[in-house]
Write a structure and sequence with these properties.
The protein is α/β, with parallel strands linked by helices. Helix content is 30%, strand content 20%. The chain folds into three domains: 108 residues, Methylthiotransferase, N-terminal domain (Rossmann fold), CATH 3.40.50; 232 residues, pyruvate-formate lyase- activating enzyme (Alpha-Beta Horseshoe), CATH 3.80.30; 60 residues, Nucleic acid-binding proteins (OB fold (Dihydrolipoamide Acetyltransferase, E2P), Beta Barrel), CATH 2.40.50.140. The strands form six sheets. A five-stranded parallel beta sheet has the order 2-1-3-4-5, sandwiched between helices. Strands 16-17-18-20-19 form a five-stranded mixed beta barrel. A three-stranded parallel beta sheet has the order 6-9-12. Helix 11 runs parallel beside helix 12. It is an enzyme of class 2 (transferase).
Length: 456
């Protein structure tokens, strides 16, 4: 059975799933989607538009008339992965269109792969469509090619990412996302709600709310109310909670108004789950990062959240080996983690990325020291996770079924987001279950990251 060990890239989206058959003679476009869930949503939007124009979506290179590679540019290692994916698509297919975050550096891509057909930047949907039209002119059948009610999805049918904004107003020194995706641009709340309603009507059981900065949602719109819905994260969360699906919040900065979300969790309107990128704990490290939460008393905030909603699950990501990080600063991070007792933790080793201001900082940490600190950090996080999961043995809880095979049903609790968190396995009496079912289980075994249970 698959389990979830810690990853060096705790930001990755689930693998794109394409299983839509094509009719004879229908033009086919392949899609390789790399990077985070926000990029996966971009891929879904591109494919939805193409599907409406009569193109089929190909699950492999050989059956495709052209291939779109949606790239990631968050880290240099992610850039290398994107270049490798472009190269593979060129070898296997030969007709490749590049988009996504790395597409903001077209000269860099063409330097490595001059034979690509076109390059566009992130969320430039019209330019991607134009490039596809040039490479493979559309030939839609108006009697057959109708847009599915919920659009093309690359995730299992029972959960879906819901992107509420683009861009970011922060200037963290290690991050170039604002340079690639621009400043905060929130979607109107009524448009988000309309999409969410369609998803739930189509059978989605879990909505995963994503953006670059979920807490800031609506700031650029001055929290305007339009068509009965206010563009503020607290109001939006309340509205989404009324749809009857699980609602999970990702990428939430710990601003003071986040405390207003916690009663919604305590009341069961949204899942008691917060994904908050703390990144570090030492004030000097945070200052060098130019993090917006550098002055926040995060331990006090965490205690306040738990007072309101004792069952809250807290997930976060951290960077170790940031330029100038001393052993004392790293030890402060370990001590903070001991006090914070976060439920789910991911960790990056710092990497330079072209264009990031952190590259110019003094006192870069040697690679072997980064690896040692990552190992120590993850050992601490693993011990906390193991103890927290052991405390769940004997508890009764609802889980959502992600997959059923001959060995077990792979499920998730309310404390687990897809791919990045743990699983709960049901390995007896699971034969009648199917993906998307929500069932009640009693936990009877715990590991370092995963649980096992039986239905009650």
């Amino acid at each position: 059975m698959p389990q979830n060990p810690p990853s060096l890239r705790p930001d990755l989206a689930p693998r794109a799933r394409i299983n839509e058959p094509a009719r004879d003679g229908q033009l086919r476009i392949g899609m390789v989607s790399l990077g985070c869930p926000k990029a996966l949503v971009d891929s879904e939007r591109i494919l939805t538009r193409l599907r409406a124009e009569g193109y089929a979506i190909s699950p492999d290179y050989t059956g495709a008339d052209a291939v779109i590679v949606n790239t990631c540019g968050f880290l240099d290692s992610a850039k290398a992965e994107s270049l490798d994916a472009i190269g593979e698509a060129l070898r296997e297919n030969g007709r490749v269109i590049v988009t996504g975050c790395l597409g903001a550096e077209p000269d860099y891509i063409r330097e490595h792969h001059p034979q690509i057909l076109a390059v566009t930047g992130p969320h430039q949907y019209e330019q991607v469509l134009d490039a596809v039209h040039m490479a493979v002119p559309p030939s839609p059948d108006p009697y057959i090619d109708l847009l599915p009610a919920s659009g093309v999805t690359l995730t299992p049918r029972h959960y879906s990412y819901l992107k509420i904004s683009e861009g970011c107003n922060h200037a963290c020194k290690f991050c170039i996302i604002p340079d690639m995706r621009g400043r905060l641009a929130s979607r109107p709340a009524h448009a988000v709600m309309r999409e969410a309603e369609k998803l739930v009507e189509a059978g989605v059981k879990e909505l995963l709310v994503i953006s670059q900065d979920t807490s800031a949602y609506g700031l650029d719109l001055k929290y305007a109310t339009e068509k009965g819905h206010r563009a503020h994260i607290t109001d939006l969360a309340r509205d989404l909670g009324s749809l009857g699906a699980w609602v999970r919040l990702h990428y939430v900065y710990p601003y003071p108004h986040v405390r207003d979300l916690i009663p919604l969790m305590a009341d069961g309107l949204i899942l008691p789950y917060l994904d908050i990128p703390f990144q570090h704990a030492h004030p000097d490290t945070l200052k060098r990062m130019a993090r917006p939460a550098a002055g926040a008393k995060t331990l006090d905030e965490i205690a306040a959240w738990r007072d309101i909603c004792p069952d809250i699950t807290l997930r976060s990501t951290f960077i170790v080996g940031y330029p100038g990080e001393t052993e004392a600063e790293f030890q402060t991070l370990l001590d903070w983690l001991d006090q914070a007792q976060l439920d789910r933790v991911g960790c990056f080793q710092y990497e330079n990325v072209a264009g990031a201001r952190s590259n110019a900082l003094p006192d870069h940490v040697p690679e072997d020291v980064k690896q040692d600190r990552w190992d120590r950090f993850m050992a601490k996080a693993q011990s906390i996770s193991e103890a927290k999961l052991a405390a769940k043995v004997g508890k009764v809880m609802d889980v959502i079924v992600d997959e059923v095979d001959e060995d077990a049903a792979t499920c998730r609790t309310m404390a687990d987001a897809p791919e990045i968190d743990g699983n709960l396995f049901i390995d007896e009496g699971f034969e009648g279950l199917k993906a998307g079912d929500i069932v009640t289980v009693e936990v009877d075994e715990a590991g370092e990251y995963d649980l096992w249970g039986k239905m009650v």
